[in-house]
Design brief:
The complex is a heterodimer of chains A (253) and B (1028).
Chain A: H1 15-51, H2 58-67, H3 92-96, H4 119-125, H5 130-133, H6 148-155, H7 164-178, E1 185-186, H8 199-204, H9 209-213, H10 230-240, H11 246-249
Chain B: H1 10-24, H2 28-46, E1 53-54, E2 70-75, E3 84-90, E4 93-99, H3 112-115, H4 118-121, E5 131-137, E6 140-145, H5 148-161, E7 165-170, H6 175-188, E8 190-194, H7 201-210, E9 216-219, E10 226-230, H8 241-252, E11 259-263, H9 269-272, E12 276-278, H10 285-299, H11 307-317, H12 322-329, H13 333-345, E13 349-353, H14 364-376, E14 384-390, H15 396-407, E15 411-417, H16 421-424, H17 431-440, E16 449-453, E17 466-468, E18 478-480, E19 487-490, H18 503-513, H19 526-537, H20 539-542, H21 546-556, E20 558-559, E21 593-599, H22 613-617, E22 631-633, H23 635-641, E23 647-652, E24 657-664, E25 672-676, H24 686-690, E26 704-705, E27 710-711, E28 717-726, E29 746-749, H25 770-773, E30 796-801, H26 810-818, H27 826-830, E31 839-848, E32 854-863, E33 882-884, E34 890-892, H28 902-906, E35 913-914, E36 941-942, H29 948-960, H30 973-977, E37 983-987, H31 994-999, E38 1004-1005, H32 1009-1012, E39 1018-1021, E40 1023-1026
Parallel strand pairs in B: 7-8, 7-15, 10-11, 10-13, 11-12, 15-16, 16-17, 21-25, 22-24, 29-40, 30-39
Antiparallel strand pairs in B: 2-3, 3-4, 5-6, 5-17, 9-14, 18-19, 19-20, 21-28, 23-24, 23-28, 26-27, 30-37, 31-32, 33-34, 35-36, 38-39
């Protein structure tokens, strides 16, 4: 992103434009505050209801789904409260309220992907290893999204797909490859800019993929199941005796 | 919103004034309006970004693991020294350059200019496709996009039709280009003109007269006990500044440090590092050299001299009395005798001349006298290696002749590349007019053709009819020859960013289009040419498997055999040297005139670095000025002209004028006005154009030192006129005194007559309260107010040897590159809001001499976060954003910082920087941003982190290997690049680590620790100075 230096003070619109903005902003703010109030009330209701054990949001449904899986799990931590329980500030509705963060950083974020890649078919049914595609996860801080070439290894000549949708998607994949274009996957686990997460260290320390990413093998469409907020990280670091020095994750990328 | 890194235009000024007014005369109603607008802006800023994409490679690159850096060896092409490079690339983009430890030239270090080579690659103003001149406007020429084929067609047509001369003007060509040009020039009938103002041609000419061979000798500064230097800036820009700085420092921190005397009318960075700086009258150095020759003859130090020359020399130096020389040169005769004494007492010595001081209208006599001195003192074969000579091809008279030819319509085709004569040649010669003559008339009254092979629209390129954009150094193939046997390969570290081609390929294509075969048929491109030539030159080493040898050499950076070729001490003195005129030639000055003294600075060299924002914002180590040029004037002279610090000054000659601010300093000769070269561009790019008005080259007279074929820099008279108001001088340090706080300490060694002595004691620089030193320093055990920290595994620490630090500022640029430090521009620096994490403080002290007088002592103090164990910044942070971690580091957590700036207020070292604004990188320069370092946003504090990302990386690797980090595995960017290796980093917890040993050195101290008990993790070692 390029742009002139942005500062609140220096970039005031001037003249007519400013008065327009002021009125517009006050209107927006009125709506916002009303919305915020509604959200707080709804959230409080949800929280109370949840305490009574009657609320199942999408994320919590996902949590319960993980309980019955064949894959190793330590549980999906969802906040400063106990395992499997959503904290008030962990509920999606808060995350959609933009003062606290964009929806991309919330549990339950489940964007549409350019290709309907199914981990169920690849991992659960065909028993592929995570690291076959995400090969750099134990080598680097990034868990690489596989090269288009890797997909073509199987789909180039051998596997054409079973369902109609599958066939279509594989054609789409071939199109990308033919044009030499990367597949514009939508990032599910969006992390802020000011922290370092090193996949290699976690994998080598024996943290399974599912602990953070949930039961990916059972997901038709990848969803963010963990809050991935700092409390959630620290929780695990404390339990495992890993360093909780700020500089381990912050101060660099 | 296509923005600029630094905006210096009117809009910004306007915006500032408006907002300023609004905030000062604020009413309640207005306040609420502002508040409303602020929250609107705030809400807009918080709006979530569109969903992010995560793009995989289409095809796997076996050399790339996402998130892991790939390194490529190459060679720096910024100047002709040819330092080896290691380029760090991430996901196919070069993000950092470091020195290649294999290269014998720089041994792993780089200068500030080398560090900034990335900003040549990512220059926002690069030419992105071939250009064709559309026409002229009052704002300058206008170009439009064209195709390579069209330009090649035009070139071929012009070459076929040309009846007159064809000229190729280049910079000092790298070896690969030189090898290609030899057949190219002869086959295509071109005449070559080489122009690089930084080449010491006079040194090479004088070698021919005294040693018998044309070339610049290789000097071994570390082998000398005494170095007497007539202005050669070997710690800044002279021939190989990185290599020479390392040699100098190796000697200075050894048991037997060399004694260094510098003679120059101005205090240069090199002079500031001397034990004794003698301020000579401009252009009078040759008299000093002759006087010393005479003294040595009197003392019988003539052993290296052939017998027949001794008589002639006696004749030449007859009648040069100390009194006469004092009168001529302005240097006290006692000092002159002292210098002669040093030289005659030393077993091994070195005498050098160069730089601006030696670029007079008549530079040969000084260089010859210096060579004679080296011969007399028996330095040939010891400190002066005349077997390893580099012959510069640059020639000012060739260029002047070519310009005259062009003006006379005798040139039909003109190609330029790698040089900027439109800027770096005195404007009085009328290069621009000459090029236009070629362009309009050419031969036979038909239009000629001017083509520039250039990636930058500089003063030379914008005169061309067509511009072919060529690769920059980090995208190109090639090689240099740092010594006679060694070859340093230039290898591309990334794919070309734009539609550019290698100069080599352009030349090959032009030749093949003209049906000339200049290379064997199987060499179809320049990279093949490079490979074939490299393998030819090293065929003895390659053995059977040449491909394997080639790959190994690429990885290593080239072929670097150990060179033991010190050569003979046999010299061939040409008797014609006694016909030279050894007098002083100075113009007659009117009352309103001074002698102009333009010098190449570490910031811009001859002007080639002017469009690099890092180099513009770098504080000049001597004046501490940023962005643009300045005029150094002696206080007495300033008084005479009614000038104060910062006043606008107009320097005017018959040929042009330059507008610069005055910098009043005692450290220039009263008769000169010193001004750095290379500022005041009228083209080249947004940063170059924004810095300064009027170039020094525009002031220079139409005079070339014909005997040495080089540019006459010093000696021209220039009118000094006071301009209107403020000259916009911005310096980052306005105060030059240490005020007895012993920030930078000095150990005084030796006496005048003691010759070379061991380092003794800890005598602080005079004028500093010794009271502080006694019983304090590292020995005291003060009461601790805060809980003392435990460091279970590591305690990171830095040690800086001030005896080795030259103040060259390479570390500043390296830090800027590594840590994504924004460039903020002149205006914001003026508000004291510069962002650099490391600065070079410069102090002027004095030390007492044997005879009770005082000599100037200049101190350079690299200052970055001291990572105090009792850090004043930590307890005042209300949000725990800065804290002490268990590795002894003073950590800064950006996302926790709320911007109270208490920490900065409480910092004793003033090293914390606050992000007053959101700084954005302009397009292309943002490609350089280090992906391992967080880009800080507005409102947070930042400071040196000891390159925490490198520490994390080293710990990561060590953990994979199941061990702790070992000594030497972590080198922060500043430590890595330091040309003199003055900085050492490591684990203080390990008492055997290198940094622990340095920190325990008898010269070690910590800045302000004895006053404040801050317990810094950074140790400094006293500077060393000989007592004069």
């Amino acid at each position: 992103m390029t742009g002139e230096r942005q500062t609140a003070v220096r970039e005031f619109p001037t003249g007519v434009k400013r008065s327009f903005l002021v009125s517009a902003s006050s209107m927006i703010n009125k709506i916002r505050f009303a919305f915020a109030g509604a959200c707080v009330l709804t959230a409080a209701a949800l929280f109370v209801g949840f305490k009574g054990g009657s609320v199942t949001s999408a994320a919590i449904a996902q949590d319960s789904a993980t309980q019955s899986s064949d894959y190793p799990q330590v549980g999906v931590r969802t906040g400063v409260f106990n395992d499997g329980q959503a904290a008030l500030w962990d509920l999606n509705i808060w995350d959609h309220f933009h003062y606290f963060g964009p929806p991309q950083r919330a549990r339950g974020y489940k964007p549409d992907q350019p290709i309907n890649f199914s981990h169920v078919i690849h991992v659960q049914q065909n028993k592929m290893e995570c690291q076959y595609c995400h090969w750099s996860v134990a080598k680097a801080s990034y868990a690489a999204i596989p090269e288009v070439e890797t997909c073509m290894g199987c789909h180039g000549a051998l596997v054409a797909g079973k369902s109609e949708q599958g066939k279509k998607d594989i054609e789409k994949l071939k199109e990308y490859y033919k044009n030499g274009q990367p597949i514009p996957w939508v990032k599910v686990h969006v992390m802020p800019d000011y922290l370092k997460f090193n996949h290699k260290r976690h994998v080598k320390a024996g943290v399974s993929c599912q602990e953070c990413h949930g039961q990916i093998p059972e997901m038709e469409k990848v969803e963010r199941v963990s809050s991935m907020k700092m409390g959630w990280c620290i929780d695990c670091h404390r339990q495992r005796g890993a360093s909780i020095d700020c500089l381990v994750c912050h101060g660099h990328k | 919103m296509k923005g600029e890194l630094v905006q210096l235009n009117g809009n910004r000024k306007q915006a500032e004034t408006q907002s300023g007014e609004g905030l000062v005369n604020i009413t309640r109603r207005r306040f609420l309006q502002v508040l409303g607008a602020t929250s609107a802006v705030g809400a807009a800023a918080c709006a979530h970004p569109a969903q992010q994409e995560i793009l995989p490679y289409v095809k796997a690159d076996p050399e790339q693991i996402p998130g892991v850096a790939a390194w490529y060896s190459s060679t720096c092409t910024e100047c002709s020294a040819g330092c080896g490079l290691r380029v760090r690339t991430r996901e196919g983009r070069a993000v950092k350059v470091e020195g290649n430890p294999n290269s014998p030239v720089n041994r792993g270090s780089l200068c500030a200019l080398g560090q900034s080579t990335l900003q040549s690659l990512y220059d926002s103003d690069r030419i992105r496709h071939p250009l064709k001149k559309k026409g002229m406007t009052p704002q300058g020429p206008v170009f439009e996009q064209t195709t390579w084929d069209e330009v090649y067609g035009k070139i071929n047509e012009a070459l076929t039709n040309a009846t007159n001369k064809k000229v190729l003007i280049t910079g000092e060509p790298q070896a690969a280009h030189a090898d290609l040009l030899t057949p190219w020039l002869s086959q295509l009938g071109f005449g070559q003109v080489v122009w690089d103002p930084m080449q010491p041609v006079a040194v090479a000419k004088a070698s021919e007269l005294v040693y018998g061979t044309f070339g610049v000798p290789t000097f071994s500064i570390d082998k000398a006990d005494v170095v007497v230097n007539f202005g050669a800036d070997f710690l800044e820009t002279f021939v190989n500044p990185v290599g020479y700085a390392r040699q100098w420092a190796d000697s200075r921190r050894s048991e037997h440090p060399l004694r260094f005397v510098h003679i120059e009318p101005r205090l240069s960075l090199t002079g500031a590092n001397a034990d004794l700086w003698l301020k000579s009258n401009p252009a009078s150095e040759v008299r000093v050299a002759l006087f010393i020759i005479g003294q040595l003859i009197q003392r019988g130090r003539t052993q290296g001299l052939p017998g027949d020359t001794l008589a002639s020399l006696k004749e030449l130096t007859k009648g040069i009395t100390p009194e006469a020389v004092e009168e001529e040169t302005g240097i006290a005769k006692e000092k002159l005798l002292l210098v002669a004494q040093y030289l005659s007492d030393a077993d091994s010595s070195l005498v050098l001349a160069g730089g601006t001081a030696a670029s007079t209208s008549n530079p040969l006599p000084l260089q010859v006298a210096v060579n004679i001195l080296n011969v007399m003192l028996g330095n040939i074969g010891k400190t002066v290696n005349i077997a390893e000579m580099a012959a510069p091809k640059s020639s000012a008279s060739d260029l002047a002749t070519a310009i005259a030819d062009m003006q006379a319509g005798k040139v039909d085709v003109l190609f330029t590349y790698g040089t900027n004569p439109g800027f770096t040649f005195p404007a009085a010669y009328g290069y621009d007019y000459a090029v236009n003559q070629v362009s309009i008339k050419g031969g036979n009254k038909k239009a000629g053709l001017v083509v520039a092979f250039s990636s930058f629209l500089d003063e030379t390129a914008q005169l061309a009819d067509y511009i072919l954009p060529v690769h920059t150094g980090l995208e190109d193939w090639g090689y240099t020859r740092p010594t006679q046997d060694a070859i340093s390969i230039i290898q591309p570290s990334m794919r070309p960013i734009f539609d550019t081609q290698s100069v080599g390929d352009v030349l090959l294509t032009i030749a093949s289009n003209a049906n000339k075969s200049i290379v064997p048929a199987d060499i179809t491109s320049f990279d093949k040419f490079v490979k074939a030539n490299f393998l030819n030159a090293t065929s003895a080493q390659a053995g059977g498997d040449t491909e394997k040898f080639w790959m190994a050499s690429l990885e290593k950076g080239g072929y670097f055999p150990a060179s033991n070729n010190n050569g003979s001490s046999k010299v061939a003195i040409n008797p014609s040297i006694f016909q030279l005129s050894y007098g002083i030639s100075r113009p007659h000055l009117h009352d309103d005139e001074l002698i102009i003294y333009p010098y190449p600075s570490v910031k811009t060299f001859d002007g080639r670095a002017a469009n690099k924002p890092w180099m513009q914002e770098l504080a000049d180590p001597i004046t501490q000025a940023v962005w643009g040029a300045w005029a150094e004037i002696h206080p007495d002279t300033a008084k005479r002209f009614g000038l104060k610090q910062g006043d606008a000054v107009i320097l005017r000659t018959d040929d042009g004028e330059a507008h610069v601010p005055a910098y009043v300093t005692e450290h220039v000769h009263p008769g000169i006005v010193a001004i750095p070269l290379g500022q005041g561009h009228s083209a080249y790019g947004r940063y170059a154009k924004s810095a300064g008005q009027g170039s020094v080259y525009g002031l220079l007279p139409k005079s070339i030192a014909t005997d040495a074929d080089s540019l006459q820099l010093i000696g021209g008279a220039v009118k000094v006129v006071r301009g209107l108001g403020n000259g916009d001088l911005v310096t980052v340090q306005d105060f030059s005194s240490q005020l007895d706080r012993e920030l930078s300490r000095t150990t005084i060694i030796g006496g005048a007559a003691a010759g070379v002595a061991h380092a003794v004691g800890d005598a602080h620089a005079s004028g500093h309260g010794d009271g502080h030193g006694e019983g304090h320093g590292g020995h005291h055990e003060p009461k601790q107010m805060y809980e003392q920290r435990e460091h279970p595994l590591y305690q990171w620490g830095l040690a800086i040897d001030l005896a080795a630090c030259t103040g060259c500022s390479a570390c500043v640029v390296a830090c800027q590159a590594e840590n994504n430090i924004p460039v903020v521009g002149k205006k914001i620096v003026n508000q004291g809001r510069e962002m650099s994490w490391i600065r070079i403080e410069r102090y002027y002290d004095s030390i007492k001499t044997e005879d009770g007088g005082e000599e100037l002592k200049v101190s350079f103090l690299p200052m970055m976060c001291q990572h105090c164990q009792n850090a004043p910044c930590e307890p005042v942070c209300p949000v725990y954003a800065t804290y002490h971690n268990e590795e002894g580091m003073n950590a800064m957590v950006y996302n926790r910082c709320v911007g109270t700036r208490y920490c900065s207020n409480n910092c004793s070292y003033k090293v914390r920087r606050f992000n007053w604004f959101q700084y954005e990188w302009p397009e292309l320069l943002d490609w350089q941003v280090n992906p391992d370092v967080t880009k800080r946003t507005v409102g947070v504090m930042e400071k040196c982190t000891f390159c925490v990302q490198r520490i994390a990386e080293a710990k990561d690797i060590a953990k994979d290997l199941g061990r702790l980090v070992e000594d030497g595995e972590i080198t922060p960017a500043c430590v890595q690049t330091c040309p003199t290796q003055a900085l050492t980093f490591g684990n203080l917890k390990d008492s055997n680590s290198k940094v622990s040993k340095v920190a325990r050195h008898e010269r070690a101290y910590k800045v302000l620790d004895h006053h404040l008990n801050t317990q810094p993790s950074v140790s400094y070692l006293n500077d060393i100075r000989y007592k004069a």
